[in-house]
Design brief:
single chain, alpha+beta, seven-stranded antiparallel sheet, three-stranded antiparallel sheet
């Protein structure tokens, strides 16, 4: 399984999940140009909005536990190649009690795209990491440094990825700071919820 092939296109910081500036406003032209692709993305992912089982049936599997102010990330490793607004390789879910809700869609790139794949796009980053079967992960610069089992849970190793550039779109849960900001302060009440 590889995250590096799920997008197209400068290097990300060495470790951690970092994000661009928050409250950057979109221009009127960007808002108009965003309407159609966002509608297409929403129609394409509607079946996953409150149905994680549908996402799992279509090949999405957990790759992170709850990342504070973000959510649980689920990757579909069969979605690779050029950016496609209707096929996000990563779905980000929030848990509120017994309910799970899709919050954001995410794409990752090995380097910052030369052209923004969607008007107004803002990027973040995620450092090189080893991922385990239960969604735990550890930051490591190379796959050879990945422990065979998660140091946190003992879950088996699944895959490693290099530094990545990330693009979040908060399509299913509002983000008061920016549609493209990686973190979302309105998710904070869900930070302690576990799957």
């Amino acid at each position: 399984m590889s995250l590096a092939g799920t997008g197209a296109g400068g290097a990300a910081p060495k470790s951690g999940h970092k994000h661009g500036k928050g409250k950057a406003k979109l221009s009127r032209v960007e808002i108009i140009r965003l309407a159609e692709p966002l509608a297409e993305a929403r129609a394409a992912t509607a079946k996953y909005a409150t149905d994680l089982d549908a996402a799992k049936a279509d090949g999405y599997r957990i790759i992170t536990q709850m990342i504070p102010d973000m959510g649980y990330h689920f990757l579909n490793p069969s979605i690779t190649g050029e950016f496609d607004i209707t096929k996000p390789p990563i779905l980000v879910y929030l848990r509120d009690g017994d309910d799970l809700q899709l919050g954001a869609l995410e794409w990752v790139f090995p380097s910052k795209p030369k052209r923004k794949p969607i008007p107004g796009a803002k990027y973040g980053s995620f450092g090189a990491a080893c991922h385990y079967d239960d969604g735990t992960f550890v930051f490591e610069d190379s796959e050879s440094d990945c422990p065979d089992d998660s140091p946190e849970s003992g879950s088996p190793f699944v895959f490693w990825h290099p530094d990545l550039v990330t693009l979040h779109i908060w399509l299913w849960y509002p983000n008061p700071d920016n549609l493209f900001k990686g973190t979302n302060r309105w998710v904070r009440p869900f930070n302690d919820e576990q799957i």
